[in-house]
Design a protein that fits this description.
Layout: H1 5-30, E1 42-48, E2 52-54, E3 60-69, E4 85-89, E5 95-98, E6 114-123, E7 137-139, E8 141-145, E9 156-157, E10 161-164
Parallel strand pairs: 2-10
Antiparallel strand pairs: 1-3, 3-6, 4-5, 4-8, 7-10, 8-9
């Protein structure tokens, strides 16, 4: 059986064009570029120094987490009145807010990611028993951060912390 070569080329050309277009589309879709100013910070719980603390004591529990921000705009000046780190007490949903405890770069290249580790101390003198739980209590803290543009990170929750009387 004889095939018409001209007929085969005409049907093969649209197939090649569609295949080439699909390949270009996948290449562009998979090419991830950073858009300056369009990054949400992220945090990752890395550890806690103890699972218990004496209420009202001078002891502290150290919480550690990693952070990253694609456009590097983390860290408010205390004079701004805008906090960086937010913690929510599981017992009453009250907030305890912090600034980053270490100095972060004040001039940031928005095309470079800012990463680091943060350590917060939860001091026993500020962790008190509820009047309804004088024999001991348990608390967890939900933690997140915000960058200078107000972009909120993901949240994580600490393991249970036992508060001893």
């Amino acid at each position: 059986m004889r095939t018409n070569r001209f007929y085969t080329i005409l049907h093969f050309k649209p197939f090649c064009t569609a295949l080439l277009a699909l390949g270009l589309l996948l290449t562009v879709a998979c090419n991830k570029t950073k858009t300056p100013g369009n990054s949400t910070p992220a945090i990752n719980f890395t550890g806690i120094s103890s699972d218990s603390i004496q209420a009202g004591s001078s002891a502290a529990i150290r919480l550690s987490f990693n952070f990253s921000d694609g456009d590097g705009n983390l860290g408010n000046k205390p004079s701004s009145g805008i906090y960086d780190i937010y913690t929510i007490d599981s017992r009453d949903n009250s907030f305890i807010n912090y600034y980053f405890p270490q100095e972060l770069p004040s001039v940031v290249d928005p095309t470079k990611e800012l990463t680091g580790t943060c350590q917060l101390d939860f001091r026993g003198e500020f962790i008190l028993l509820r009047p309804t739980r004088p024999g001991g209590d348990t608390v967890r803290y939900e933690v997140y951060i915000r960058d200078r543009e107000g972009n909120e990170s993901n949240h994580f929750t600490t393991p249970n912390i036992y508060i001893k009387p």
